[in-house]
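Q: Here's a chain of 412 amino acids. Please give me its 3D structure as tokens.
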Amino acid sequence: MSIICAKIVLVLCILLVYLAFQWLGYNIKNDSSHINIAKVKPRGHIRQNGDYWVWNNYIIADDVFIGNESITLATHASYEDLVYLPELLTTWGGPISISIFVCGTDFEKTIDSLRYIYTCLTMRFYMKRYLTIHLIFHDQHVPEIMKSMKMHELANYKHCKLDPAFQNTSWTQSYWRRRKLNYPRNLLRNVARINIFTYYVLSIDIHMLPTPDFPKKFLKFIRNHDTWRFADIPEPYTSVFCLPVFPIHLWDFVPKDKLQLRKLQVTRLSRRQKRWLDAPNPYDEVFIYEISKETDFCVVYVSINELEPLYDEQDENGSILEEDTNLKCQFLVDLKYNFIVLDGVFLIEHILWRKWTILNSRRRKKRALKSIRRRYIWHRFYTKVISLVPDEFAQLWNTRLRSSWQRRLKDG
């Protein structure tokens, strides 16, 4: 009798152990299903890139946007250009990745400028939620005082009694201009792009200003005009979405939509800009204006970040506004990209900033002529890369887009 009882107890113990392991495995699986690896906040790290040091993710935004949850705006600046940052933060309404050039004493002026914007201009909500900052400096001009910071540590009301470093600055006050250093704008652009997690990116210069709530408008457009339902967007992985650029003076009223832009009576427009401006859009919706293989009406665009070529970092003076130095767009033409011009959204360009940037245009033209060989090498390389894109990529990308929005609707 005792032997039978012992066997029964042994069987029950084995059964309990089995059920315990089953319960533990279920909990581990259930918990891991709620963990999104891409949502883990990135850490700051420093790496060397040629003659420059790059401090990736120096200050990281609280919210991490991935996939089609938003669009990231990638831009670059020195501390002088941070005067444009407050309006950009409030107008964009989404994640911003900015690379700042901080050689020598420019590091301290950059931190002071960020403190002023964060504390005195009450931008803390936008900066904490959306802004991620990266720092770049030359290895021969390392800042004397460097320290790691978090966004909330920028709060300092003592700076409100003084004028910010970016206000009323002359052309020769910055460290890198006094030392006649090159401004590595293409490296800055690439660093801002590499450190984002959304599918789409809009890479612009900081003096440009998009229409309000652009991320929401563009994502709505993508959901309604994808190639798998309407065939409006041919070859999405080799297509970019172009935004017309209109110059205005710094003191002019900033238009919020196409109707206000017409009333502003912008001068010095090309024929294509005038036709775009005159085209009716009564509901202020985003739709396709035209599709082209040329870039004469496309200097700024939204692209899939993972598939669009990066900028050539050897070309430190490349401009996105001047055709003779914009090698990036020439690469895209060689790769047979589709340039889809959008209606209902546009960019504003501050004229004063552009006048400063073209002072050395002759030198940039000379460098552009010497870049023919690099253009040929890029063409060969990216032609092979595009050929490796799997045929099922478009359908897979569409599935991820739909599941992302279904998950958001379910959570909401």
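Q: Can you summarize the key feature?
A: Residues 103 and 176 are 6 Å apart (CA to CA).
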